Amino acid sequence: MEGGNQSVVSEFVFLGLTNSWNIQLLLFVFSSMFYVASMAGNSLIMFTVASDPHLHSPMYFLLANLSLIDLGVSSVTSPKMIYDLFRKRKVISFRGCVTQIFFVHVIGGVEMVLLIAMAYDRYVAICKPLHYLTIMSPRMCIFFLVSAWVVGLLHSVVQLAFVVNLPFCGPNVLDSFYCDLPRFIQLACTDTHRLEFMVIANSGFISVGSFFILIISYIVIVVTVQKHSSGGSSKALSTLSAHVTVVVLFFGPLMFFYTWPSSSTHLDKFLVIFDAVITPVLNPVIYTFRNQEMKVAMRRVFRQLVNYRHIS
User: Fold this and answer.
1) 232 with 223: CB under 8 angstroms?
2) DSSP letter at 54?
3) CA 116/CA 215 separation, integer angstroms
4) Distance (Å, rounded) from C-alpha 105 to C-alpha 68?
């Protein structure tokens, strides 16, 4: 094993999800379908937003970047999990494991900031509509995007800096189907209680803090609308319902995984599958396919592509 951590472990072995052939087959079909749907749906959203001038607004700029992140969420863990389902020996190299951990936390950090930016965008659109384009300027949108990536990279690098040089001398078995910090640290041949607390405090604090910031912001929006319009509350709730749904679906598993002291391994696996496989599919459905403006734009782009093919 390369590096200065004196490790003799060069690879890790996953126990996977189940040993039942029938359940493995079901998971293979289920995961493959959702992975393809996620890649197709989020790619379609990005292409539509980039192609249609009517969608060149701050809200859809943020949505397109959320779709890009969801492509990453799907690709970091799902392909390896699907590939390993029918393998007797599910292995990943030490370097591959660290790389997977790095991208899991980068993408998670970026998505948290993007969701906060989208909540702020809705706050400005609903509570300060006359100043919307001034506040949510192109410069502000770029600021949100750059901040999201900086936070994601710092969140991941800071944690890995403390654990990447830990000594690993065996065992090398992970009771999971992907690499993440809590179980990775537990395999180190040294006392890791402080590091485990640091990881839980870091990821747990960020996820719980971001979740409550978002929920409070939505409450502020609804209260503000109620004060200014007797009939505005239902409209605000309708506008925010999609955002609240995505926030709960994204942060729920994360908060449970990083803050629950004695969680079940089977429940952890189910929540990770939900976050990695199902949520990236639900995001485009909840945010855009129920959005009339997006559906009209998709039909418009499709007609343009058909006309272009006929002309060519």
Assistant:
1) no
2) G
3) 10
4) 15
pLDDT truncated to tens, each residue of the chain (312 aa)? Answer: 444 445 678 889 998 877 788 888 998 999 999 999 999 989 989 999 998 888 889 989 999 999 999 999 889 988 998 988 888 889 999 999 999 999 999 998 999 899 899 889 888 888 888 899 999 999 999 999 999 999 999 989 988 888 888 888 878 888 888 888 888 888 888 888 888 778 777 777 788 888 888 888 888 887 777 776 655 445 555 656 777 777 887 787 777 777 665 555 667 777 778 778 888 888 778 777 667 788 888 888 888 777 766 665
Bridge partners (DSSP) listed for residue 174: 14
- Rounded to two decimals, the pTM is 0.85
Number of CB atoms found within 10 A of residue 263's CB: 14
| Cis peptide bond N-terminal to 79, omega within 30 | no
- Name 134's Cβ contacts closer than 8 Å, sequence gap at least 6: none
Task: Count CB-CB contacts under 10 A for residue 230.
Answer: 8
- Considering Cα of 200, then 206, then 211, then 213, what sign does the dihedral take? positive
Written as six digits, the tokens of 186 are: 């537990």
Q: Which two tokens stand for residue 28?
A: 């293979």
- Residue 13 has what DSSP assignment? E
State how far the Cα of 39 lies from the Cα of 270, in Å rounded to an integer: 21
Q: Amino acid identity, residue 72?
A: G
CB–CB of 107/73 below 8 Å? yes
